[in-house]
């Protein structure tokens, strides 16, 4: 196959492309707040020309940012080709907040930007430069990248490539962009027919490798975990106000905590940092659902927690290498310590059962069957109810990053909504702090600010019990 002119999307990447619908744009991203500093203009704005020059000079590090999606003529499989019309000005966009440029205005803008799907005719990313925050003393960056390009870990790696670790880093002089010729329909059809012929041989080789004697223990664990995951997914979670048909509009809320505080809670009360987060989310959801007059004691409330299965050798590689845990959240438990204990027991069992490995095995099978299984999984995700809430926690760099010398002070992650999922809780650790981004359906979640307050209160409870 002529991979030097195009690349096929992996089945998992293609599934995120297929999951996109009229009310479910599938981009992930973040909202950054930065000091205007060296980018401030005499008029009180931001020097957008310098930002575009800085970003454009670093794009040679990320070839995917200058590629767009096309499709094969026979099986309509998505692939990446160079965009011969690429212009950095289309992707690095410039806007401003009206006075006074406060946090509430910024959150409303983030909600509007998040609601807009990315243009499939161009490379699937945007970076919005928002001036006028805090009377011009600060500005914001709203980043959007389609989930078919990156997962949480690879999006963090992209961030470190696009930004700099020093305020005085010199402007790069990258090589000029020379797009490769697009493959013709005849070439793509020829390659597809050739792949049909190789398909059976490739599948046989993959099966031989999978069932090799030295991998027997690993395979047994993965098969058992895959069976448990599939069986549990067939039984829907309880219905809650979070699980309803969603609309096209978005609402966004933020929360920032000292990372040292959450680590201190973990050290004092036990478990992992992620256990503390899931326990706090469970406590917040308990209060939120009770205000909505839900009987929390009878709920089978499940949280999907994405888990990276990226290996060391895959560091720096774009695309998705992610699985998930399904955790039963103890929203019926009133005691915060017992909630944390229940979460700790649940996650320990998931580690022992290798559920993430089982889900990764199901994903790997699609390499032999094409995207059929993942397309079915996407349909089930949209129509069924395997979980009530997604909580995704991505570790970020613990050093400050800069954009043309301007320091990035805050970094709130933005996750996508699936059908029947009215809110997603995303976390990002950066520069000694833990940042939360709550992205929600605007119609289903008019009280999103109350959920944000519930989350802060749940952490305060755990901190008080840990005496930190």
Provide key terms for this protein.
single chain; 468 residues; alpha+beta; Chloramphenicol Acetyltransferase; six-stranded mixed sheet; 13 helices; 15 strands; globular
Topology:
Elements: E1 7-8, H1 11-18, E2 27-35, H2 48-58, E3 67-71, E4 78-82, H3 88-91, E5 92-96, H4 103-115, E6 125-133, E7 138-146, H5 152-162, H6 185-210, H7 216-234, E8 250-258, H8 259-269, H9 273-291, E9 302-308, E10 322-328, H10 336-353, H11 355-369, H12 372-383, E11 389-395, E12 402-403, E13 406-414, E14 423-430, E15 433-441, H13 448-466
Parallel strand pairs: 5-6, 9-11, 11-14
Antiparallel strand pairs: 1-4, 2-7, 2-13, 3-4, 6-7, 8-15, 9-10, 12-13, 14-15
Helix pairs in contact: 7-11, 8-9, 8-13, 9-10, 9-13
List the quaternary state of the chains. Answer: single chain
Unreliable segments of 5+ consecutive residues? 355-380
The structure class reads alpha+beta
Which CATH C-level class of the domain at 216-395 and 424-466 is it? Alpha Beta
Query: Termini separation (Å)?
Result: 59 Å
State the gist of this model.
This protein has 468 residues and is an alpha+beta fold.
Provide a descriptive summary of the structure in words.
The chain has 468 residues and is an alpha+beta fold. Helices cover 40% and strands 22% of the residues. The protein has a domain at 216-395 and 424-466: Chloramphenicol Acetyltransferase. It contains 13 helices and 15 strands. It has a six-stranded mixed β-sheet with strand order 5-6-7-2-13-12, with helices on both faces. Helix 9 (273-291) crosses helix 10.
